[in-house]
From TrEMBL:
PANTHER family membership: HTH-TYPE TRANSCRIPTIONAL ACTIVATOR TTDR-RELATED (PTHR30537:SF5), HTH-TYPE TRANSCRIPTIONAL REGULATOR (PTHR30537)
Keyword Transcription regulation attributed: yes
Keywords: DNA-binding, Transcription, Transcription regulation
A Pfam family annotated for this UniProt entry: HTH_1
Keyword tRNA processing (UniProt): no
PROSITE patterns per record: HTH_LYSR
Domain of life: Bacteria
Protein name (database record): LysR family transcriptional regulator
Coiled-coil intervals: none
Lineage of producing organism: Bacteria, Pseudomonadati, Pseudomonadota, Gammaproteobacteria, Vibrionales
CDD domains for the chain: PBP2_CrgA_like
């Protein structure tokens, strides 16, 4: 059943004429008449008798009108209540993510604009997270959670790239193979007491870096200052690649795909704020995959 046509039919009856419905619906009289006729045809029922001066409901039309009017009024009331409920979404949500996780910043801004009464507390955390003990509602992280008490929802994937500044390449040349990387300054993302390697073409390539950091923004700074080659996610270097400041090194070499997950404690008993955030984040990453691939 076409609900729009049903609404037109009810409005014609309420206004007592096609012209009255035309004015209230801001719709040409011919369109009002056509919609009612098509609606009758789809039902296989004559709903009203028309004349040049008035109209009269048939028995079938009277029965439908009595039910339809209540249904439309309830549906419109439900839509108003839904809008009011959305406006009333408020509270606090604690969200953790890796430090400098710029991938989410635009989305967090848009979430605030849509739900201004929600206070978002952001925490940059590098260690493993215990959602309950750390009082975290939602965690963004690279890879799926291994905790049996947590639920992971994949929201996208990224593929990092080997990047250097154009000035560095102009001064030192560019490696032509993975093996030649050893002849260049390499910048590694690591944590203390870990071996440094990049996974390239499915294999680990170990190297001795000239400088390391556990933050991508720091590595981007080193690259900007012509200090060497780093492996960066697209969202940390896309703008510089587009304006020519950075160049991709060994573009034919593949890097591993990294999944981005939202992790939360339970599907049951989620607060309205958390459910709203989860739905927003899912829709946002599907609609705005600027630096990542959606599911």
């Amino acid at each position: 059943m076409d609900l729009n046509s049903l609404k037109v039919f009810v409005e014609v009856v309420n206004r007592g004429s096609f012209s009255g419905a035309s004015k209230s619906l801001n719709m040409p009289v011919s369109t009002v008449s056509r919609k009612v006729s098509e609606f009758e045809e789809s039902l296989g029922q004559k709903l009203m008798e028309r004349s040049t001066r008035n109209l009269r409901l048939t028995d079938q039309g009277e029965t439908l009108f009595q039910y339809a009017q209540r249904s439309i009024e309830e549906m419109e009331a439900g839509l108003v209540a839904l809008e009011e409920k959305q406006e009333q979404v408020e509270g606090t949500i604690r969200v953790s993510m890796p430090p400098n996780f710029e991938l989410t910043w635009d989305g967090l801004r848009d979430f605030h604009l849509e739900f201004p009464k929600v206070k978002v507390q952001l925490l940059g955390i590098t260690r493993d997270i215990d959602l309950i003990n750390d009082h975290i509602d939602i965690a963004f992280q690279y890879g799926e959670s291994t905790s049996p008490s947590s639920i992971s929802r994949k929201v996208g994937t990224i593929v990092p790239m080997l990047i250097a500044s154009k000035r560095y390449i102009d001064q030192h040349g560019s490696p032509q193979s993975i093996e030649e990387l050893a002849q260049f300054h390499c910048l590694a993302r690591d944590n203390p007491n870990t071996e440094n390697f990049w996974t390239l073409n499915g294999e680990k390539y170990y190297f001795i870096p000239i400088m390391t950091s556990n933050e991508f923004r720091t590595l981007r700074f080193f690259v900007k200052n012509d200090m060497g080659i780093a492996q960066l996610p697209p969202y940390f270097c896309q703008e510089e690649l587009e304006n020519g400041e950075f160049v991709q090194v060994l573009p034919e070499v593949s890097s591993p795909t990294v999944e981005i997950h939202m992790v939360y404690a339970s599907r049951k008993h989620l607060s309205r704020v958390v459910r709203t955030f989860l739905d927003f984040a899912k829709n946002y990453t599907n609609d705005e995959p600027k630096y990542w691939s959606a599911n």
